[in-house]
Amino acid sequence: MKISNRTTTSQALYYENSTYSKAKIKGVFSFPEGLYVCTDMSPFHPEDYLGGDQPGDKGKIVIQGKTYKVEDSRIIIIDINTRKNVFPKSKSAFYKGLQEGIYIAMIGHFIIDDLNSLNENSLIDLDCELYVDEKFRENLSKTHTTVHLMSIILNEELASFWKKEVDFKDDLNNPNFDALAIQKSKIYTYYATDVYRIGKSLSKKGFDLVKFKSLDFKKFSIELSSSLNKLIDINKSSKVSMFGDNIQLGAKRNFKVKINDRFVTIPCGGTHVSSLSQLPKVTVDCFYNEEEKTLSIKTQLI
């Protein structure tokens, strides 16, 4: 492990939808399966080991005229006192460490090919060029944007399933089922999966479990698919924007889009399309597991 004496948290250029940048190498972390090359800035969206839903970008890095394939990209967190790679147990601990200056976070680009030609000691502070696989990024961005729209439709379709007033609502004034029940989410290049916990905690917030369990989930899937495609079609001229305090890795970011003449904002640090006109037709499939008390939803781009 090698770290530059002048290392700071990476600038996350993917927040601005960049797919190329020049950068300086600020850290090199060797693992049995390969090497993570960390830079002061990067257009690569990194996967978050704490459970981020969007996978890391792929692409290539050029160092001293030689091109290396980037198989993956991840967030690498460094304790500034020990100068070692650490793994905070929660996102709150990670953000607190960044704010208090205990941690710095860098974007690591994973290389496994031709490692013999790379000397860790000589890489620090070298210039490099970073190229994101644009097609891979585009497909992930389409899926990620679609999933946010699916959550808006899901909140709307389940708005009548609440037995009492819910304080936590989305920007279309529907109870925010998605935010209240989400257990895990995963983005892929042509589809996404979301798992929601349908248990006592949700019931105490006022959600009608009996009414929910009586749903015909095949019919419900068809209704969600139809509503989502209609929403995309009606609002296809809407632009998507991402905003936040800054472009430092770990900064709080938001997704914003205009739906039916109202702006909807969702906390998100992933990548997205610039316009809803870029989205294809989609299908939504719902599966309720009574034993596990979960609703699984697969959103598929056609």
Overall description:
Helix 3 (134-157) crosses helix 7 (217-234). The protein folds into two domains: 2-132, Elongation Factor Tu (Ef-tu), domain 3 (Beta Barrel), CATH 2.40.30.130; 137-301, Threonyl-tRNA Synthetase, Chain A, domain 2. A hairpin with a 2-residue loop joins strand 15 (253-259) and strand 16. The model has no long low-confidence stretch (mean pLDDT 94). Strands 1, 3, 4, 6, 7, 8, 9, 10 and 11 form a nine-stranded antiparallel sheet that branches. It has a four-stranded antiparallel sheet with strand order 12-13-18-17. Strands 14-15-16 form a three-stranded antiparallel sheet, with no helix packed on it. The protein is α+β, with helices and mostly antiparallel strands and 302 residues long. It is built from seven helices and 18 strands. The protein has helices spanning 91-99, 120-123, 134-157, 177-181, 200-204, 209-213, 217-234; strands at residues 2-3, 11-12, 20-31, 34-39, 41-42, 59-63, 66-70, 72-79, 84-85, 103-111, 127-132, 182-187, 191-197, 240-244, 253-259, 262-267, 282-289, 294-301.
